[in-house]
Amino acid sequence: MFSSGLSAVEQRELAERITRFLSLYTHISDSYIIEFFSQDLWKSLPNSWQLVLQDLSYQQTAELLLDSKNQHRRYGSVWPLSLLAFRTTAHRLAFPRDLRQDPGALKPEEFQENQSQSSMLCHIFRKHVKPKKQHEIRKLGMLVKQLSEQTECSRVVDVGSGQGHLTRFLSFGLGLSVTAIEADHAQVARAYKFDTQLLCALEKEKQKEDSSSLVPASQSTPRHVAGWVNPRASWEAFLTQLSAPDVQQHPLNPTGPIQKKPRGPEDALHTPTSNGRQSRDLGEKLSPWQCSSSVKDVCQEESSPPEYPDFILTGLHACGDLSATLLRHFVKCPHVCGITSVACCYMKITTKENPSPPGRVECSVPLAPNQELGPSDYGYPMSSWVQGLPGHQLSYKAREGACHAVEDYVQRLREESELLRTHCYRAMLEVFIREVRPDLCRAGIQTIKKAHMLPFTEYARLGLARVGLPPGLFLDPERVEAMLKQQSRVVVYFSLALLLAPVVETLVLLDRMIYLQENGLHSQLVPLFNPHFSPRNFVLVAHKRK
């Protein structure tokens, strides 16, 4: 299951090569495609690049630029060495994203018969779960189970658990003792509701004579905590948050709470008995409203909590700094014996240059002086090595670009999808907006439904209204037509930027691997999910040796 890892020396050398490479092309990685016309981005490319790229078809763009596995490229003209070097280096520096057992497949094998139902996941775990999430919870769940066996630890804390889909599979499906923590109280309430439905489904399955072998034998009921994990708080505060007292209630009768005495820390990460059931009754559940300390408790100084049992940390697409926070807890907390981290939303990571990126959740309570962010507490870079490399800085735009789905865009190019015109439409609209309101640079225009199916005039009418401009603003037909003819150039330029996206993601993840290595911990990066199905498919895996 685990991929072969790079040595410590190889990790550092790769990070140095990446930072050197990316620093040469910041004018591409930091550019916004909606400014293609207003900033004349095409002219920013070398003349020799423009000549060979200007007439590329969508198919050629996919085959000659983005497809790293294409060994039989056919060029219509001689490409400059600088462009060939750019493309080849970008491919070589990025971590491979394809699964060895499922190379190039647009859909995982488990969805070949039914595209919405995984054939490898019991039906009770598919309810309310979209195919992408089914694929992710099955693959990550099995990896966590393997790590559990390797570390001889059956307790798991699922951070950013949402509606509890992964939590339920780990707990009911794999028999692990799981505590789930989620900031959104509404999501926690739904997690309880779905837990209840699953228990009902299990009871019905037991009554069937031909009960499926996929139905889990154990019922290790998960514990849910409603609370926000503060990136600035200590690991002691995190443990205190997990051990908050609660009110429990029967899942089949959620209106009837059962008052319980506050439990000790040994119960916060509850241990299953030998038969896979919890030491408490299966019917007992936690109140989603009273099982967590307040944000104020988490933000302020906490006294050291009592002794805790060991546990494994996991986070499926933990957003922004949350993934970095879990890694720091793994390093510093003696009770965390292993971690599986799947990151996402790199643009929300804090950096020294941008400590409050858009979309980042801020603590509503002032922090104690000793909890203020220090130079080593940003989401990137985490390692001292990367922090010391010239050109290691990654802009918000570069990190946002690293979240794009390369495989999905390649598929659109090969299918010559009408969706490709959307970027051109938005870049055209930016020109007309700035002519009327120069202060509205890169104004936020929410997704216009089926924009690719609309003529530009209709798209512009809808978009102008969303930024407070007259929908009937005059649009010079000749200028509109001239810009529409450059749609293929918009696509090519976006593809050049997309080439850099996996390299940026590699640097962010490599920095985290080096951070662990600097703290004496070996880690490995696993391309666990099918990238066509789940673009953020890397899982960072590590455990502490006993």
From TrEMBL:
Region (Disordered): 246-283
GO molecular function: rRNA (adenine-N6,N6-)-dimethyltransferase activity
UniProt-listed PROSITE patterns: RRNA_A_DIMETH (PS01131)
SUPFAM superfamilies with a match to the protein in the record: S-adenosyl-L-methionine-dependent methyltransferases
InterPro entries per the UniProt record, alphabetical: Methyltranfer_dom, METTL25, rRNA_Ade_Mease_Trfase_CS, SAM-dependent_MTases_sf
Domain Methyltransferase: 132-351
Alphabetized Gene3D superfamilies for the sequence: Vaccinia Virus protein VP39
PANTHER family for this protein: CGI-41 METHYLTRANSFERASE, METHYLTRANSFERASE-LIKE PROTEIN 25B
Name of the protein in question: Methyltransferase domain-containing protein
Annotated source species: Takifugu bimaculatus
